[in-house]
Description:
The chain contains 9 helices and 10 strands. The chain is α/β, with parallel strands linked by helices. Strand 3 (about 55), helix 2 and strand 4 (about 105) form a beta-alpha-beta unit. The longest helix is centred in the last third of the chain and has 15 residues, at about 180-195. It is globular, with a radius of gyration of 17 Å. About 45% of the residues are buried.
Amino acid sequence: MAAILPSLFVSHGSPALALDPGPAGAFWHELAGRLPRPRAVLCVSAHWNTLAPVVNSPTELDTIYDFYGFPDPLYRLTYRAPGAPFLAERVRTLLGEAGIPCGIDPERGLDHGAWVPLRSFYPEADIPVMQLSVQPRRDANWHFRLGAALAPLLREGVLILGSGGATHNLYELDRKSGPAPAWAKEFDDWLAAALAGGQCDEVLDWETKAPNALRAHPSPEHFLPLFVAWGAAGNGARGVRLYGGFTLGGLSMAAFEFAV
Length: 260
């Protein structure tokens, strides 16, 4: 019988962490080391946006360089984990049973929201990986519902990994990496406290309830994977912040584990 795995959300930060993982990468690697070894990873990345849910299903995953302006060595890195067509079909079935149609893309590889943290989680690239897209035109409740439909996977040896950002405002990055601004810390701390307290209604209504909500997330795509991971943990689940801190000013690196 496969080990029951948690659902996780990580803030994946800059693509440059693939070259220099630093403290966040060390944390990701340590976290993977104390989890049961998964049969597969389902990664919900902020960098695959669709109108309706889609999963990818190639047997061999290409490394997608969906960024520009970084050092050349970054574009030579690869993450050649095997694909997980078996998991794609399982996800489509589970979502279908919940009344959520799901498409399958047989060719798409891994974007940097997946492969950058996975290089630290599982550097041997020997665990099958599949991605699920997010729908930025849909709200937090929709993504929570997606996660709830996928809850059985945690008992089937699948690690559900949401990858985005607890805060994500690229308009206000500090390239000199000064201290985190007050608005970012206030949102980050509100999120951690609300998840730890199981304040589901508050967090699902984050756009009106959270301090500095639209400054922390001018667009929602980096926040939505959190709700999939949270929903998968089950009714009454709470989120524990496992890692914190900021990079590039107000870009949170918070990571959460969800459990009932």
